[in-house]
Amino acid sequence: MKVFEEIGGYFQLMERVFSKPERPRIYWHQLVLEIEKLGLRSIGIVAVISVFMGGIITLQLTYNMSNPLMPTYIIGLGNRDTLILEFSCTVLSLMLAGKVGSNIASEIGSMRVTEQIDSLELMGVNSASFLILPKTIAVLFISPILFVFSVFCGIIGGLIAGPVSGVVTIADYMGGIKTSFVPFFVTFSIIKTMVFGFLIATVPAYMGYYVQGGALEVGRASTRSVVSTSILILFFDLILTQLLFK
Fold first, then answer.
1. How far, in Å, CA of 140 to CA of 147, rounded?
2. Helix axis angle, 127-165 relative to 43-64, nearest 10°?
């Protein structure tokens, strides 16, 4: 079946990617460039989306839990846990799969169809490792940082939307943020974020590395990589939740 061929080809490529680099110094320079390109350029969109989502979650919690017997601090607590457990790791990773994943697939795919990868191979360079390894390490490095930044921005968004709309006071909201904090939730979400980051970097890279044809096929590979990565993120979200919360 084609799916098993794809899985086998993916693991064969990963074996080449994680082989010993020929010149580690060149890889270090490439890593710095990838962190700036794939990670730092995503900070703006992460901040905007997280602030708005934090505000939306706060308002929805308020309107759906409007019970005089329920303490108002539960709004801050619910916003915090929703951001930590699901939004800032899973939903944000789905967004990055579209932004970062498509970028990786199109970049490597363009190099394949313009025969730049073949030129690297002729020069004796392990093209898979040189092109994919720095991207993978960069995404793994920046993903937890974006997760923490997203949670912070989401809490700020709730802090703005709640008091401004009059649904909760600043004191009650901040009281909820500090109530019943479970450190394992952060550990759990960082583990998920790292796994999702690995998928975001390697699955689109595989799609782009083996693309055949021209510019049209590069675009199709980019779209296919986003769809495949998103499905895998949701699948591993389910698996990791079952494993880590038992």
1. 11
2. 40
For residues 212 and 198, what is the distance between their CA atoms, to the nearest angstrom?
Answer: 24
Residues 6+ positions from 84 with CB-CB distance below 8 Å: 151, 185, 186, 189
Task: Give tens-digit pLDDT for 159-205.
Answer: 888 888 777 788 888 888 888 788 888 898 999 999 999 999 999 99
| DSSP state for residue 168 in the 8-state scheme | S
CA distances for 170 relative to 15, 77, 162, 175, 178, angstroms: 52, 13, 8, 8, 12
C-beta neighbour count of 105 within 10 angstroms: 29
> Are 154 and 87 a contacting pair, CB within 8 Å?
yes
Contact 234, 192 (CB under 8 A): no
- What are the pLDDT digits (tens) for 4-39? 788 888 888 888 888 876 677 777 888 888 888 887
54: amino acid identity, one letter: G
Q: Which domain holds residue 187?
A: 2-244
* Inter-residue contact 207 to 226 (CB < 8 Å): no
Is residue 79 within 8 A of residue 154, CB to CB? The reply is yes
Report the distance separating Cα 160 and Cα 54, nearest Å. 9
The number of domains in the chain is 1
